Amino acid sequence: MNSSTIDMQTPSDFFRYRNVMLRIFLAILIALTLLSAWHTELKVGTFFTALPRVASWIFAHVVPDAAAWSRFPSMLEKLVETIFLSIMATTTAAVTAFLFAIMGSQCTRINGFFAIASRAVASVSRNIPIAAWALIFLVTFGMSAFTGYLALFFASFGFLTRAFIETIDEASDSQVEALRATGASYPHIIAQAVIPASIPQMISWVLYMVETNIRDATLVGLLTGSGIGFLFDLYYKTQQYKSASLVVILLVIVVMTIEFLSNHVRRKIL
Amino acid sequence: MSTVDYNRWTGKIAIRRLTTSQAWLYSVLVVLSSATVYGFLVLDTKGVGLIDAATRTIEYFGLMFGSPRGVPSHFGVFNDSTAALFLASFNLVLQTLSLAFLSTLLGGVIALVLGLFGAKNLTGPRTSNAIKGLMALIRAVPTVLWVLIFAIGAGLGAVAAVIGMSFHTIGYLLKAYSESFEEIDEGVIEALRASGASWLHIVSQAVLPSSITQILSWTFLRFEINFAVAVAMGAAAGAGGIGYNMFISAGYFFDIREIGFITYQILVIAILLEVVATRLKKRYRLAS
Amino acid sequence: MALLDVRKLTKSYGETQALSDVSFQISKGEFVSVIGPSGSGKTTLIRCVNRLIEPSAGEIVFDGKEMTALRGPELRRERARIGMIFQHYNLVYRLTVIENVLHGRLGYKGAIKGVFSMYDEQEKRHALEILELLGLGELVYRRCDMLSGGQKQRVGIARALVQNPRIILCDEPISSLDPSSARIIMDYLLKIRTEMGITMVVNLHQIDVARKYSSRILGFNKGTLVFDGPSDQLSQQKIYEIYGAEAGELIND
Fold first, then answer.
1. Other Cβ atoms closer than 10 A to A130
2. Shortest CB distance from B2 goes to which of C102, C137, C143?
3. For residue B127, which phi and psi values (nearest 5 degrees)?
4. What tens digit of pLDDT does each residue of B225-283 get?
5. Cross-chain Cβ contact A184/C106 below 8 Å
6. Calpha distance B243→B231 (Å, rounded)
7. Which CATH architecture does the domain made up of C1-81+165-253 adopt?
8. Which CATH class is domain B66-284?
9. What is the ipTM of this complex?
10. For A256, which of B48, B102, B140 is closest by C-beta distance?
11. What is the pTM of this model?
């Protein structure tokens, strides 16, 4: 800021200043922690008793029993349903998000009004948490896979619109200018410059969203009574913990497989 | 004339050759879109048609966003004071924010410790890879399941929520922190090492001071995410806060107008957090 | 009649004037260099001609058509007859060389044909001929991100040529290139002017290059045209007027 004060500052002044700042920061952090703990009625003692209990619970239930294996086919069915739901929500949201991103991006927008409107819609859609979307559609359509689909769709749409806008802004500014100069029309520019320049990055986002949505679909399923989340909830509430843990194991396998596949694809296309 | 390819079927001059990266790209598109089409064909819509669904969505959105209102008794308020109602519901929002704060803090502290061990330039690649593998495993389990698993040990409530939510927080922040650490100039660390500084000295004198702004920014970005997660845990895993009230409004009262009332409050907080997060991202060039 | 007639062209961004009251005429077949320090309005000028930037006031008459009055398809048709070459090449890097070259035909295409890359055989053959001419015959199917800077710029030139332009606008075409690639590019531009008779307007940073290649030089300073004359009349005094304090370094080069 003003160099004279810095010049005059001795090293010990500097370290003292840093130490004071550090103490103030830590004091605020501790105050906020205590306040939050009090406000959420956090029982600190439970923290330490919970960990060993959960650890022993996990060891006791990690190996599925015969009852759990007998439910394996229905788990698989719900798992497949969840995977499809995640993919459907992602792809349809991606197509919608692409249209909104084109209107919202600085270099492809049609006019200022549409740009602001599309960014606003995306912002609302993304900032309403996915659990809230699930509950909104639960009231609208009752318990069904369709409700889960809509919740995933709206959350993905908001997220992907922002991601796509960033991608388009980064990838295609100069190409758009070049094509405008040749006399290309708006659809030409989108098809010949914007899409080729940004599609690998956009696909990468879509794959990331599929991964995320499989995890989120579990949450949504819990709330809307569909997919693998519903099944977990059922076993959990009836205390059939070995079945519940088999569900978790299957989910881990699926999520990690999809993560592995999409990383592989990402390396190939980027 | 130059070497030119001709289209196998039309005999016209080709303008591209199929590369492996294009082949992968097209395959992904084909797989995803056929899965989508198949998914819609078998989707259980409980007999709701497309037009019916659209009109109902518009109607409910209209009610939710157009005429939101909260029922005072649902928020423990038993008089007609609007101020009291807003105060009560804001208190619940604060509870959700507190959950987000605590889990971000817990996750952040653990991630910081692990990150110092996990950064490639501070320890060997083997430790680093082991930690990364463990994190991939932890991230594969959805947060809601972590919370419910911990609820078995701690009972449904804040403790289970904070521990459960901290798991993904650790995974997210660990990656961010170790990348910040790895950005640090190798020469600085080497110089300190040469001067006989211990590992602890290097960390406290070189690593932390030069990456502290990035660390704080990343932590805030996670706090923003954790707010949404905390709403979800209130709704799905009994963690309390505004999420739980929303769950009750939806699951027991089927009251879309009250959901609107709650949604608006969540939206305001979420957008405020996002604005700050976006500023931080731009300022410190944090790549997501 | 002049091919390009710029009359009292003005462009302002809020308070700052990027161009003030600029007038000049360019005839068919001229090779004109536009010089001036950064921020002197060269880039704005060249982009006003094909309306990538909207002028604030003044007229631009290209080949008898008032550019500032054109809208929609009419504007596209005129842009198609004006080629443009960029400092950073502005290619779609994930597409092949020939796909990028054929982008130059989009100004003549309907929506469907352009969107789905349905180019005529004649257009493709024309593109191939031009690539051959520019020494890119072996790189037709190479992805543009695999090319060197000089090769990328030649693709940019090919894209402009395939438009069958009456004029080519070049915005600092050699500023991102090493000296030998830069010379090759400038030689090609000169060749295009002499062999095809296409008018060239080139923004340049290097005075010696401008002197060597162009028949006429326009010098800008802070958005005002301060020199307009044959290259050999560009005196040290004039260079000082154009570049101000920067001039010393440039002359010593």
1. 27
2. C137
3. -60, -45
4. 999 999 999 999 988 899 999 999 999 999 999 999 999 999 999 999 999 999 998 88
5. yes
6. 4
7. 3-Layer(aba) Sandwich (3.40)
8. mainly alpha
9. 0.91
10. B140
11. 0.90
